[in-house]
Amino acid sequence: MEAISILGNCSFCFKLLTSMVMFMCGEGEATAPRNDDFIRQQEAIVTIAALDSEDSVETTVAAASVQKQDEQKEEASEEDTEEASAELCSESEVYTFDEGFDSSFKAYMDYRTITDTASVQYEIQQEAYTDERGFRRIGDDYCVALGTGITDGCGERFLITLDSGCSFSVIVSDVKADVHTDSTCTYVPLGGGRGNVVEFIIDSSAADSAMLSSGNAGYYDDLHGNIKSIEKI
């Protein structure tokens, strides 16, 4: 629109100057010889004005093009930043707990309670073995149950780090029902600022009687303490 306006103004100026020249030249013919130098000067002024207007139009169009390119670059940069941010979040899933929260109690369940032969949980137990302390494991991972606030389902692996400095890897072999967990679906409330976050799957016939009596898999030194973080691996 600016370019059209500028061209219109140039056309008007050109007509006005031409009229003035013609008028002056006509008036001069009645009283004096035609002044060709004056006419050439006026034509030169009009030509320069027209060229300046064309340059202004080209400059305006070029500036608009550059601005459009800059806006497109900004939009692309924002999209790249959002994608990178989303990718970073998906690659680094770490769950932490408040220092005042007591997560030292770690429940256990016997693997024989998983009886649905068509379930993923049952299939995982067919691949698991029992270690010397009675824990069910796949490779170096402990078989555990976690809430839906942490895991999307069986088969996921996590690294659990305790405030004692000890850490261990687990494989989700069962998922806690939301009805049994807190509003965040991450732990089973035990009252008094306490909660059971991780539940080990064991073979009770091979487990230590002292651990069974305590009811807490955190009975062992390397599993004792509050959970500092749970990181997806």
Summarize the structure.
This protein has 233 residues and is of the alpha+beta class. It is built from four helices and eleven strands, in the order H-H-E-E-H-E-E-E-E-E-E-E-E-H-E.
Description:
The protein has two domains: 2-91; 94-232. Strand 4 and strand 5 form a beta hairpin. It has 233 residues and is α+β, with helices and mostly antiparallel strands. It is elongated. It has helices at residues 2-31, 36-91, 120-127, 209-214; strands spanning 94-96, 107-110, 129-130, 136-138, 141-146, 157-162, 167-175, 188-191, 194-196, 199-202, 227-232. It starts with a helix and ends with a strand. The chain is built from four helices and eleven strands, in the order ααββαββββββββαβ. The strands form two sheets. Strands 1, 2, 3, 4, 5, 6, 7, 10 and 11 form a nine-stranded mixed beta sheet that branches. Strands 8-9 form a two-stranded antiparallel ribbon.
